[in-house]
Amino acid sequence: MIVATTFALLCLASAALAWIDLRRGIIPDWLNLAIASLGVARMAMLGGWTAACIASLEGLVIGATVWLFRRLYFAVRQYQGLGLGDVKLLAASGIWIGVTGVPMQLLIAAVTALAAAGAMQLAGQTVTRQTSLPFGPFLALGLIITLALQQGGWID
Asked: pLDDT tens-digit profile of 19-29?
């Protein structure tokens, strides 16, 4: 019951996140905090406080690593390729899926974002490397699919 309820709440939060990011181009901090808090609560209920602390640390490590990549990208390109909301979402995602799940999340997010860009091009919109496409909805989708795959035993 805990797994199904928290998964449903994550799906609702992810849908709200996608809607807001697509409409306003931002991911609100309160929504990232809600996703992270729900993940910590889920881990505490399923595995105890030790598991919740370990999951929180994984989220912090992922967030710090992605933030460093974001800084490095800016130093090289002089262009912000990833917003801070996306970094915070990846940190919150780490609480849910762990370090081992993040590569799958990023793969799913990248492939679906590329598919969306392709669909935009096919629909007649000009898509260039300067075209801005909010990445949050794709990260949220990647989180949900990765978590479902983990729960189904398809991936670790």
From this structure: 999 999 999 99
